[in-house]
Amino acid sequence: MKNEKMVIDKNSFIPPYYQLAQILEQQIRSGQYRPGDTLPSEAELSEKYGLSRMTVRRSLSQLARAGLIYSEQGKGTFVSRPRLDRAVFVMEEFHTEMAARGLVSSVRLMEARVVPAPQKAATKLQVPVGEKVLYIRRSLLADGEPMAYDRKYLRYDRGRPILENELQYQALPEMVEKHGEVLPVSSQMTLQATVLNEEEARALRVAPGTPAFLLEQILFDNTERPVGWGWCLYRGDRYQLSSQSPIF
Amino acid sequence: MKNEKMVIDKNSFIPPYYQLAQILEQQIRSGQYRPGDTLPSEAELSEKYGLSRMTVRRSLSQLARAGLIYSEQGKGTFVSRPRLDRAVFVMEEFHTEMAARGLVSSVRLMEARVVPAPQKAATKLQVPVGEKVLYIRRSLLADGEPMAYDRKYLRYDRGRPILENELQYQALPEMVEKHGEVLPVSSQMTLQATVLNEEEARALRVAPGTPAFLLEQILFDNTERPVGWGWCLYRGDRYQLSSQSPIF
DNA sequence: GAGTGGTCTAGACCACGCC
DNA sequence: GCGTGGTCTAGACCACTCT
């Protein structure tokens, strides 16, 4: 590889801090610096590329955020060993996800009623058993085909009617917001592997025993009170998660 | 809530940029600034807290990285609407994960042979069908109980023997490194929901039809050549992923 | 003590949005 | 034109590591 001195083009539209980050990244990815190697000190980089130390630091912090390098005070800046055994999976909301795949998503509302909270829902929503809560069953479609089956309980302490059109194209946070008139501010989700029972399989129009992802979701308002809870089942034969590349 | 003016303690061990970030975060979380609201301008914050604009910017960029706020050039800095419908799941390497749960993990090597590459493996590893590759089957245990079943193919163009102890406690990246004498630099993983067949269920000592996570992994070296490929099955009845809280 | 990264300042100029 | 955030500089002092 060419060891020609790379320089910063100050007339470029790309800001210098970004150019330097690119140069260093390229040098790391090409193997010029290998995991564990010490990078030139900030002072050296500053001098070599004709940039102030603050600018050099900005380049380095960008690479550090991406996980390519790390710094130790008093010692230096080093090339990271890649963490190849850690996977990060991002699961977007259904409509976003389907849109990204180029599919047209839609929602079929199967049920929406005010019901007395069953044991499990009462516990999760921290309301007395039997308290009136909103229960919703929906099927989420991609190009007309059921891909996910969504069941949710929403806290419902107001006496106002259910407006069906509010439940059609909205994710749980929006539903909670409209129905409870509270703003959810945090959520907690867990993902499990499961197999579909008869009822679930019917809703998804597949055979019972088909594998599925089970996404459980709890929403909280700013007083950390749970305001929504439920699960969404994603067909395992049509749905998979891919690990995300680094931030960079 | 108290609207007492918060000040920066310059004698604190906590650096000013961090103190300001905490103040702003608290003001956002308490609802003093709500999603969509405009924060005071950098100049105002700089003046109010007696910090240089660069320091104020550092506080803001920390909050921005955490997703609490975002900036628009020429307009201002705004409080983000929380993305409650996006879940981020991080899957650590098996031993790390089990250690975090307080379990003692171990590995049982079931098979490790040099074999002619079958069709699928040859395609994934980009070698001719029938080329010699290393095939490994392992069972990953937590407190002595099988939790995952791991099958991997490794590129193997050297003529050296297999050292069994190299396969015992190592994740795929280390195995590739030791056996192929190449440094893997990137990986690609996908996660699926599946059910165990007879052979897999036997390896995990559960009933066939039990749900499981299927993690497929491909490793690449710095020339983007695939050097390792395989799957790991995690018992769905014992394994779940939790969404991570924000970086902050 | 010399070298490293961590923090901070007080300016400067620019690009963008809005009136 | 004015206010906003985006970038950059040339210093400064500190905390830490190594020798």
Automatic annotation (TrEMBL), chains A, B:
<dbReference type="InterPro" id="IPR050679">
    <property type="entry name" value="Bact_HTH_transcr_reg"/>
</dbReference>
<dbReference type="GO" id="GO:0003677">
    <property type="term" value="F:DNA binding"/>
</dbReference>
<feature type="domain" description="HTH gntR-type">
    <location>
        <begin position="14"/>
        <end position="82"/>
    </location>
</feature>
<protein>
    <submittedName>
        <fullName>HTH-type transcriptional repressor YvoA</fullName>
    </submittedName>
</protein>
<dbReference type="Pfam" id="PF00392">
    <property type="entry name" value="GntR"/>
</dbReference>
<keyword id="KW-0238">DNA-binding</keyword>
<dbReference type="InterPro" id="IPR028978">
    <property type="entry name" value="Chorismate_lyase_/UTRA_dom_sf"/>
</dbReference>
<keyword id="KW-0804">Transcription</keyword>
<dbReference type="InterPro" id="IPR036390">
    <property type="entry name" value="WH_DNA-bd_sf"/>
</dbReference>
<dbReference type="GO" id="GO:0045892">
    <property type="term" value="P:negative regulation of DNA-templated transcription"/>
</dbReference>
<keyword id="KW-0805">Transcription regulation</keyword>
<dbReference type="Pfam" id="PF07702">
    <property type="entry name" value="UTRA"/>
</dbReference>
<dbReference type="GO" id="GO:0003700">
    <property type="term" value="F:DNA-binding transcription factor activity"/>
</dbReference>
<dbReference type="InterPro" id="IPR011663">
    <property type="entry name" value="UTRA"/>
</dbReference>
<dbReference type="InterPro" id="IPR036388">
    <property type="entry name" value="WH-like_DNA-bd_sf"/>
</dbReference>
<dbReference type="InterPro" id="IPR000524">
    <property type="entry name" value="Tscrpt_reg_HTH_GntR"/>
</dbReference>
